[in-house]
Amino acid sequence: MKRILTTLLLASATAVAAAAQPSPAASDGEPYLPRFASHERSNISCDLTPFGRTATIGEETEFVHLFAGTGGFNGFDEYQPTASGAPAPLVRSFRGSLTQGALAGTTFLEAVAIDLNGDGRDEVVTAHRVTDGGHLRLGVFRRTGNGVELFDTWTLARTFNAVQLAAADLAGAANGRQHLAVLVRGTDPAGLEVHVLTGDSAGGIFQTNGNSAGRWARSGVFGPVSLAAGDLLLEGREQLVVVNEAGFGQSRTLNYHLLSYLPQIAQMPVVAGDVNIGTFSHASPVGTVWHTDDGSGPSLNSIERLVARAGDLVDSAAHELVVLAQFRASSFHYIGMRLVRWTTTRDANNAITGIAFNSRGPEEDFDSSIMLQTGESDPMASFDAVVASIDRISPSELVIARGRGNSSLQVEAFKAQAFTRASYTWERNGLIVQFTDQSTGPIVSRTWNFGDNSGTVSAINPTKQYGQAGTYTVTLTIVDADGAQRSYNQTIVVSASGTSSGGSPASYRYLFRTTPSYQASHPLGPEQEPLDVRVAVGDMDKDGIAEVMTVARGPTQRMTRSVWKLASTANPGSFAGRHQTEELSGYSNLTAHAVLAADLDGDSLLATLGTDCRQVEEPQVRQVVWLPPYFQRLQANASKQASFGESTTGGTSSERRSGSFTSHDVSAYLGLSLGSEAAGVEASVRATAGYFWQASNGALSGSENSYRLDQSYSQGQGDALVVIEENTFNCYSYDVATQSGGQDADSAVRMCEIVDGSRLLSGTDARFWDTQIPATPVDHPPAQWMPLHRDWASLSLFRPVTSNVQLAGGQGAANATDGLFTTKAATPGVAVRPYLEIDLGGMKDISNIRVFPSAGNAAKLKGFRVYASPTPMPATGLPSGGNVRVFAPETGDDVAYSQWSIWTRNRNNPAQMLQARYIRVQHPGLAQLDVAQIQVFGDTRVDPPAYPEAVCDPLANDGYFNALVWDPGQGVSGGFRSIQVRGDLLWDGSGGYPVGGGCNHHGNLRTQPIWANAAIGNSATTAWNLSQDASNVVGDITAFESAIRVGAEFDLQAGFIAKVQLGGAYEWSSGITEEVQTTSFWGSGLEIGGAIGGFAPQFSDLIQSCRYTPRPYAYRLIDVSNTGYEHTAYVVDYVVRQGPGTWQRGNVPVLCSRDDAIFGNGFQ
Q: What pTM, to 2 d.p., does this model score?
């Protein structure tokens, strides 16, 4: 996606059902001024960031293959990717030696990529056995211009028969520096040792030979063993895990040793003989059967190999551990996979006070256990595994490469998930019961049955008001992504008074999906059964989708190098590999090899904590419910009401509230010099900054969003009910750089965490939103503000437009006021001082002007100005003089994000609007004109004749619906024309377009006649209420999800939002996460309503001539401010139908709107 990057990283880890804070009362009786409008810059310490001091935002790794064989045969290869159409996937950059300098006379065994000094450039550490003495020697390599060089070594005078390496941040510094962990299975004496080594400033090993920063040792003879690293406790730093087999037969166990370097947890003490490494050990019974989830586990004679890998497999919280065991039963080989995890208890300060190994029960000392391979005969299959994301979808997958008995290489990616379980908690206050969904797993739908024959609702956390006391069985039924259905019920005693509570809180169990999400294979040819397979994962081309890198050696002199990739994240079947082979005689006697995904040249994009850190207030317009149409002259003092979440007629409902959640955000702007590197943001920032925030908050697992219930709101003034949600965020700026190229001044990243408990809901009105809020800052409306005026209310609709330049064919000036966003007025190229000028036909009061560039061409508005004048402006040159007002964009880069909104009221007296007749959009120099619409608005209220006659949405979710509006200039006496309104209809109570009107609703739109026969005019108040009149129109759409960018005040100041390139396109970055920033939701019984009184008594003689028929509809509106700050709102509005017995738009009685004796006497 090429767009401004905005995404949530992580939401609160526990689902919360709590009412939002009420709006504070204003002392002077005026409406409450939202915090974002009056907020002044508030700096915070950048050192408080919970996101870490560095994060990789665009990874570019190299394919590194190291190998060694008999007779001194060895190599250190680096490969770069070729173009997609090339016959081979890789081209070799260089081939170096593994036995340089002090490594001469050694045998290569293992390797790891690691950044020892945190400079953004990986080193490669290799492990060798010294021929003379059999000791361990490590080599540290770095890339040079022509290859690699060995620049440091470390030697441990210890004989051994196995070594493993791991790179990890064991101290939690979050500064990019990694520690090196070395697992040694020693001989003479026998035992296990883990050494922790740190890096020096040059990227070498700080400790001298034989010394280490931390040491853990256990004596004895050990069989298969494996080392892994990950933050399994969500401590804010990684731990090490050593997994080994102990005992045999019925007494066989898998021992899990959880190791913490410089431990800070009492449950992980440093025991005698160890140095700076604390331990929490657990012995997991295995015996003679490999137990599985389905109870069909095979028998087990001996374990032949263990592979342990850690990573975020299930949710955006603590890492999980996967153990793959290759074992023998009789003459057959098996591979089993287990997912295990640790749980913690914490105090009020988030400090860990207890650790436990999670267990399902006897003989099931795991979360999940499945078989990867069942019953294959000799030879034993080779396999390797890594935990990484290969599809941009968080969390990660377990990626396995293995050889198959049919001489093929297979790559599979397995996902894990939380076990689907239905549950809820409830709290009762009298007859009202609040339910909070505590279900876990990949839920796609939920249904509540309240046990009172009132039907079902699909809300997330509904509130039920029972009609009478009694005993009710409430059932929640959920359906998961696989179609499985689960239910939970409780019997609740409801009485008219008192309180009670109950239910079952969330509990978690994780499961492997038994079928790989992605898989592909490659035949290696006759007699080429892979004997030694290795795998790594990294993004080689900065497109955000990681490549799987494999190497496979057969029994001959052939080596196969492969790159596997998901071509489309929407198509699992697009996962495939590209392959190339190399034949060398030395491969026939290979003794060891490894494949690494390493950034050796330091060209990955890094974000480093900057100096601009602030607390910001961010609003979301959640609902806009317009008052029913009314004549100001006839109904100024009539009863009026717009409501959301409550009934205007006093009825009851299963769901009388709406709700929302808002969560954390990362926004990045990557400049032109960084090319398309933005695409790589997703996997890395999601995995780093997201992890650090969760670590700071200590959420091991849980739902990712904090749901809040909103109170009901109603409004009787100010033209519309406007419900605003505000949250406070702490935002931290990060500088963008590559190690090889340095800092990029045109790029930036910010990461924002929501401040817990800061959420505030307020109900205001459209007039206050359009007058007081934009007037509060000193020199411009708030960066998050946008006008609420409806597209059909533009004063410029169908007005004549002139231009001083030749426009392209079919793109004439009239398109700028035709009401269609899909047409445009444009020049074929650059012109001198090009303009479009609208004549409004007379002096108008103007509150706002909106300029929409054509789709994708917002940057072409850079430098344009808007001129407003009561008198004609000169046809040539630039307008000037005392009567001309000039408006320029308020952003730092002189251009709005995707539409330009101009507030034109008097800041000192907002009730006073700009008065003008002519509106011009003009560039003072050379520019290309490319405008879709120019809108001009008066006040927020308009009289009924200005409303549309009908609305229609022929295409679902395209962002527009049609409105039939009156054009007085069409034909002799005017006529209706169809325009586009931004939004998607949610339901329609207005009756749709008339027969033959040229538009029909799409098939999924809910419709129900509302106020079909209501003629407003008589003195009685007329009301409608959704749950009463149209209870079936809400059900299909019960939530809005949107991704907003937090920190709009940064954008307004810096102007990062519009990086203009050659060709006039935006430089936008990519979205990052699978989750959304903000959601608004409601139940199918949600109540929405409107009410309007009739004409004042003194106008009773006008009832017959001025009465009218309004009818409601609702739509989802996604609108943005000048800085691109997005609001997603539920909007309720009206049409006014004309028909027999009511006025026609071409002949509306003047006295309906004007108190004027001249017009009243018939003067035309």
A: 0.76
